[in-house]
Automatic annotation (TrEMBL):
It comes from Helicobacter anseris. This is Uncharacterized protein. It comes from the Bacteria.
């Protein structure tokens, strides 16, 4: 069941790169400065423009938001969500997997690859030559200690975060994925009594929900797929800036 998650995430990644629906995806915004009571100068890609926001925005911060134009041509923002800092942090990650490598890795027996992965991380942790590598491999080990598999997946120069946790019942896996243009996604893969796989996804944007409903229909790995919009999505494991009491 765990290897099916890799195929699912690859399918989601491909969906996000289709030109047909790119205009519906949340856009990355940089808040440059405040120019009035509720007016901000923002940067979207190479474009700088002004917009209004009833919500107080943090100067210098990044946000994901749905962007539209009003009837008079002004920029309208909706569903502003702070851009996850971890996406910037993992750009410097010393270990990243391609989707095909991820599939091969997850296709192994769970006990085998968990032990193999732990030994690999321990070797690189004790041999870390700088603070960045030390923190990275230490966090990966700490995640594994909490029975959460954390991986960085990179495809076409875009990095995403994947976390997988086996629930107490062997018939269910929980996962968390974080994409640059899709934001946070929570998922549960379940195996029913008839050996059918079902999938439940939670996303933060209505546009992402619509995108996935449109594109995941081609995914025949699951007998049922349920997608809902939720504000309460968080990683299964959060990276620490310092490590204490790390056990092997």
């Amino acid at each position: 069941m765990i290897e099916k998650i890799s195929s699912l995430l690859q399918n989601i990644s491909k969906s996000a790169n289709t030109k047909e629906i790119n205009n519906t995806l949340p856009i990355l915004l940089h808040i440059l400065k405040k120019e009035g009571k509720d007016t901000y100068l923002i940067k979207m890609g190479n474009l700088q423009t002004k917009t209004k926001s009833q919500k107080e925005l943090i100067i210098g911060a990044k946000y994901l938001a749905n962007v539209n134009k009003s009837s008079v041509g002004s920029i309208l923002l909706s569903n502003l969500t702070p851009y996850p800092k971890i996406l910037d942090d993992i750009k410097e990650a010393p270990l990243k997997l391609k989707h095909e490598e991820l599939k091969n890795f997850l296709s192994k027996d769970a006990k085998d690859f968990t032990q193999e992965w732990k030994n690999f991380l321990l070797d690189h942790f004790v041999q870390a030559s700088n603070k960045n590598d030390f923190l990275f491999f230490g966090n990966m080990l700490l995640s594994l200690q909490k029975e959460i598999l954390t991986l960085i997946v990179s495809e076409e120069n875009k990095d995403s975060l994947l976390q997988i946790k086996k629930n107490k019942t062997l018939s269910q896996l929980e996962f968390y994925a974080l994409y640059p243009h899709l934001g946070d996604i929570n998922g549960i893969v379940s195996l029913d009594a008839d050996k059918n796989l079902t999938l439940k996804l939670e996303v933060k944007f209505e546009s992402i929900k619509n995108l996935l409903e449109k594109n995941l229909s081609s995914l025949d790995l699951f007998s049922q797929v349920h997608i809902i919009k939720s504000e309460n999505i968080s990683p299964l494991f959060s990276f620490e800036d310092h490590l204490l009491n790390l056990k092997g």
